[in-house]
Amino acid sequence: xxxxxxxxxxxxxxxxxxxxxxxxxxxxxGGETTSGGETTEAVTTDPGIVSKLTPELKEELGLDGxxxxxxxxxxxxxxxxxxxxxxxxxxxxxxxAAYKRNLWLEENCGFTLxxxxxxxxxxxxxxTYILAGEDxxxxxFPMGQQAGAAASQGLLYxxxxxxxxxxxxxxxxQMFSDSVEIAGKLFYATGAISTNSYDAVRVFFFNKTxxxxxxxxxxxxxxxxxxxxxxxxxxxxxxxxxxxNGDTEMTFEDQFGLGWQSTIGTxxxxxxxxxxxTKNDSNRLPVLNLDSERFTEVFTKVRDTLSNHDVYxxxxxxxxxxxxxxxxxxxxxxxxxxxxxxxxYDVDFGVLxxxxxxxxxxxxxxxxxxxxxxxxxVPKNNTNLxxxxxxIQAIAEASQKFLVDPYYDTVLTGKSLRDEESSExxxxxxxxxxxxxxxxxxxxxxxxxxxxxxxxxxxxxxxxATNKSAIEEAINKTLENMLG
Length: 484
Description:
The protein is of the alpha/beta class. It folds into 2 domains: 53-199 and 373-402, Periplasmic binding protein-like II (D-Maltodextrin-Binding Protein, domain 2), CATH 3.40.190; 202-367 and 438-483, Periplasmic binding protein-like II (D-Maltodextrin-Binding Protein, domain 2, 3-Layer(aba) Sandwich), CATH 3.40.190.10. The protein has helices at 2-13, 55-61, 93-109, 125-131, 144-152, 174-180, 196-199, 208-213, 219-224, 230-239, 267-272, 293-306, 319-325, 338-341, 385-402, 404-412, 420-429, 437-441, 446-454, 460-483, and strands at residues 32-33, 39-40, 67-72, 112-117, 139-141, 202-207, 256-261, 278-280, 286-288, 312-315, 329-335, 349-352, 366-367, 433-434. The N and C termini lie far apart (50 Å). 48% of the residues are buried.
């Protein structure tokens, strides 16, 4: 944790700044993460947007006393923003960090934060409100799929056009932005502005007790050495699949190499291998990638490997998490938020990034799905874009200053994760994730169909031949509506 403490001291020494530095890094805490997972200090030359706030600019933007109002997803669901509003200090670490951030913003910028909550987890009101000209909300944080639906109707601003919003700063997740940018336009962004983006990252959990019992290689060192690959994962999983009750059938009561939900689990390997259903061409336009040679290779191998249900436990009811905390699976692939769900249980576990496809892959790539992620969006009927851009940038920078350390050091490392190495792995995982535009826009239901295909013996080539034209037609329709 040494590097974290050094970085915290550096942040604390900044005066009246939110320190979202101009030095580009891969670490939300301001340090640069190397391919081996080590964190080095970064030199921050830009003290942040708040330091540039003159009395004249403050008056011009109308910040004093302004109530910045947003609409969030249903408060009862798992994927709303729980670190946006904090009315008082309660002793909860993340709540208190958000309270201090909001107080700091009010004292230094003059504005306060307000949030209403959607009636559903999609935040489906976004399209209705914008089409009706409802201008009560400066910004929305909807489900990713709902953001895609709004963008496809031309209802969102290109965030790159907002004067004070600097998406190149390291408080924004660059890999996410690159993956969802279309024709040079970016309609949603995420990063340190909310820890929702961290919770939504799909990672690998591993059971340390089982790994030690079977004398497996150190997974952390495999990651550091760039040798944590799909083949290595498969090799380790096979060693730990055991018929515990001796009835010659592998059931929930036995021990498996991996537990995964059929609705999502297999897709993580595709994205971890650097593949996507759609990829951007040279004009930054999405094109279908399903029939590429490498996608076919990765898809086929992942499907065939995980079809061995004597090693891999496939479920649709979330029992994979129960199996993991009852120590009957070596690996679990799930969202990082599950770390907190595992908190009450006496299970010794660690966190890893998703495996590379091969050792020569440049970096570890995580995946978030468009159901969990809640990115920031700005509606087309926003009446003061300069003020909105400034405030969103200020929140993102202040969140990087106030929220990230508490999230790492207490919410995860102090209460959920059991070792310092997992925190090192998080530095790799939470700033290297992609989201597929095919998931954001749900073109012809391709993501759901691909999940189904992963769980059957469906021939990919036949599926592509049957559905390619419909998917491409849906893509073209979206682009026509969005880009004109």
